[in-house]
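Format notes (please read before filing issues)

Several people have asked whether sequences and structure tokens are stored in separate files. They are not. Every record keeps both together, in the order shown below: the sequence lines, then the token lines. Line labels are part of the format and must not be stripped during preprocessing.
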Amino acid sequence: MSDFEPGTGVVRPRLTVLSGPSGVGKSSVLAELRRQQPDIYFSVSVTTRKPRPGETDGVHYHFVDREKFQQMIHAGEFLEHAEFAGNCYGTPRRPVEEALAAGRPALLEIELQGARQVRVAMPRAQLVMLAPPSWEHLVDRLTGRGTEHPEVVERRLAIAREELAAEKEFDEVVVNADVQSAAADLLSLMVGPRISGV
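Then the structure lines:
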């Protein structure tokens, strides 16, 4: 979906928000998207949780304490923010705006509630849902791991039902039947016709 500068015919870069249920393959699709188009700006979230082994500040997350996070909320520095499992997460506004101003398409990968907040904060944002080929496929992905308690899996499936039911709130849906194809479909939605020969 292209977004033209009024009166010029020039396509402006726009913010794309990718959401989808747990187990649908968002990480794999985004890794392939990075490979296909390294120039895309991928937002780095701010979080109050502690870094896990191997995580680097500014690469995986921006790690801050709760006091700093609250200051950022009050200063209007987030496009969206939420709390999960006792930790806060937020998408910083300025880097996204700077990437778009520099002509780079920008991508956020966030959950449904965050996507709704971004829709309010930046109405021009394009919301894309990454969906499984079928409900059965998603159930297989979530139960096939075999590493989680059945109650946890049931909770994830309940959340996934709620997320998939919100499909009509999204501008586009990309079905992840194949990672390379899904990444290519997402890329074409982000850059539209402007990329050929650029």
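For reference, the curators noted about this record: Residues 4-10, 193-198 have pLDDT under 50 and may be disordered. The longest helix spans residues 150-165.
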